[in-house]
Amino acid sequence: MGGRRGALALVAAEGAAPVSPGPALFEEMLAGWRRQQQARRLSGALVDGRERIVRRFAEFTGCLPWEWAPAQAEAWAAGGGWAHSRVRAYQGAVSMFLGYACDPRYGWAAECEQRVGSVPVQVFHEGNTAVHVAEYEGRAERRPLTRAELQAFFDAADDYAEKAACSRRKGQLAAFRDATLFKVVYGWGLRRREAAMLDVADFAASPAAPELGSFGVCHVRFGKAMKGSPPRRRAVATVMPWAAEALGQYLDDVRPRYGCGHHPAVWLTERGGRISPRQIDDRFAQLRGLAGLPDDLSVHCLRHSYVWHLIEDGADPLFVQWQAGHSWASTTAAYTTVGQDARNRMMRHALARAFEGEDGR
């Protein structure tokens, strides 16, 4: 199979049973595509997710790649009921797989022609693919929390932790941990995975803010990766001292009670491991319900709230962009929904500068 002159060797999937040439050939193509993505240093989770999408499309069509047609792709995307960003991700995964399968450098078209008598074609094109025209493609219902909603959420988390402590039930440590975790997510504008991967050593003193002690800066080591790059790092300056105070209390009084002093993670589970992003989602949903907030709000809305509130409080937009770890100011702007009161304050401040005379009046 791989001995043809001028063609790259095809990658055979381990354990593929060559009983039927169609399914076996599909598995070989998927294995080769996986190897190609791994060579680009893409994360295992991203590669696995793309492969699951391709398999779901194959299950939807009931066909194999050399039998796929644009009409099937359009029916799949139109009937899914997915958000705009999810549709683009699904279409992108299938399109990338077919781009690999149709690439003459890998020889799959000739192999398919020889073994099954047909060749794969690209089923997604400019005319049937969702377009990326907006910076923010999330659900419109997901928005920053107002300051009143944010206070209600933190009050519900604190009340839950206090009740758990008074009842002396098993979950009292987890309840206090969760209340602190979400204050840290908001207080430093973190993504869900960034918070889950925090280690105790990631917090350090800042010479610009000695009064904050060892919580002057948060070193984020697992920021959002871009195009197969390693996780991006950034240093987030502490601008909410109350969040640092809450974190210090948790590290001093609660975390040692887990009995896992050797573990580097900030957020531990009852079994002595690191909390997962999925667990953070579940805990947020529980506290969101106790606070009576809309179900559409997610953990990421706390990060949106951080950006929004800093801008409203008069922080320099470039500083906020650095804090959030955004490469482009337009991304930070997509997070921002400045309220009318803040707009009025900014307008009066601008007018005061414009009408100020040379004598300073």
Describe this structure in words.
By secondary structure, the protein is mainly alpha-helical. The chain is 53% helix and 4% strand. It has helices at 21-39, 44-61, 70-79, 84-102, 108-115, 147-167, 172-188, 192-196, 241-254, 277-291, 300-312, 317-324, 329-335, 340-355, and strands spanning 203-204, 217-223, 232-237. A 3-stranded antiparallel beta sheet has the order 1-2-3. Helix 1 (21-39) runs antiparallel to helix 2 (44-61). The termini are far apart. Residues 1-9 have low confidence and may be disordered.
Question: What is the gist of this entry?
Answer:
This protein is mainly alpha-helical.
Helix/strand layout:
Elements: H1 21-39, H2 44-61, H3 70-79, H4 84-102, H5 108-115, H6 147-167, H7 172-188, H8 192-196, E1 203-204, E2 217-223, E3 232-237, H9 241-254, H10 277-291, H11 300-312, H12 317-324, H13 329-335, H14 340-355
Helix pairs in contact: 1-2, 2-4, 6-7, 6-10, 7-9, 7-11, 11-12
Salient structural properties:
three-stranded antiparallel beta sheet, disordered N terminus, hpI Integrase, Chain A, 361 residues, 14 helices, mainly alpha, 4% strand
